[in-house]
């Protein structure tokens, strides 16, 4: 059974950090590009960061939304079948539900097929 499970969210003060994890089961994550997306009820879904498959792209191509460049870092640990999103210098506008999706368009970091996605983890940035 294909499954993605996110963890690592929580409540943090502005300027703080969180490290989100997305762990896959039922398939080898390394064969797929994957992205982190966030959803706030009042806004459209936003592609936060995406990363290529290291099988198809040895350089590990990454994409970041302008709003998170220099603050967030996406990485993958193929041995753990996990992708991470290290979030530093968090701002209140980073608040939302963060989830990972496998079916993406890497160049634009947008969702192509949402059938393989996790349930999400809540990130709240507030003083």
At a glance:
This protein has 127 residues and is mostly beta strands. The protein has strands spanning 3-7, 10-12, 18-25, 34-39, 46-51, 62-64, 72-77, 82-87, 96-105, 110-117, 121-125.
Structure overview:
- The chain has 127 residues and is mainly β.
- Helix content is 0%, strand content 52%.
- It contains no helices and 11 strands.
- Strands 2, 4, 5, 6, 9, 10 and 11 form a 7-stranded mixed beta sheet that branches.
- A hairpin with a 4-residue loop joins strand 9 (96-105) and strand 10 (110-117).
- The protein is globular, with a radius of gyration of 14 Å.
- The model has no long low-confidence stretch (mean pLDDT 93).
Features:
52% strand, 127 residues, 4-stranded antiparallel beta sheet, single chain, 11 strands, 7-stranded mixed beta sheet, mainly beta, 0% helix
Number of strands: 11
Report the order of strands and helices: EEEEEEEEEEE
Q: How many helical elements?
A: 0
Shape: globular
pLDDT averaged over residues? 93
Quickly give the structural class.
Answer: mainly beta
Beginning-to-end CA distance, first to last residue: 40 Å
Percent helix: under 10%
- As a percent range, the share of strand residues is over 45%
- Uncertain spans: none
> Compute the gyration radius: what is it?
14 Å
Strand count, sense and barrel status of the largest sheet are:
7 strands, mixed
């Amino acid at each position: 059974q294909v499954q993605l499970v996110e963890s690592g969210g929580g409540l943090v003060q502005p300027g703080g950090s969180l490290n989100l994890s997305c762990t896959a089961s039922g398939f080898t994550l390394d064969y797929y590009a994957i992205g982190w997306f966030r959803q706030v009820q009042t806004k459209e879904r936003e592609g936060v960061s995406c990363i290529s498959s290291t099988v198809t792209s040895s350089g590990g191509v990454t994409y970041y939304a302008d709003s998170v460049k220099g603050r967030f870092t996406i990485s993958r640990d193929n041995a753990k079948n996990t992708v991470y999103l290290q979030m530093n210098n968090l701002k209140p506008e980073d608040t939302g539900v963060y989830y990972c999706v496998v079916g993406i368009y890497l160049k634009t970091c947008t969702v192509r097929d949402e059938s393989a996605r996790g349930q999400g983890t809540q990130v709240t940035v507030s003083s």
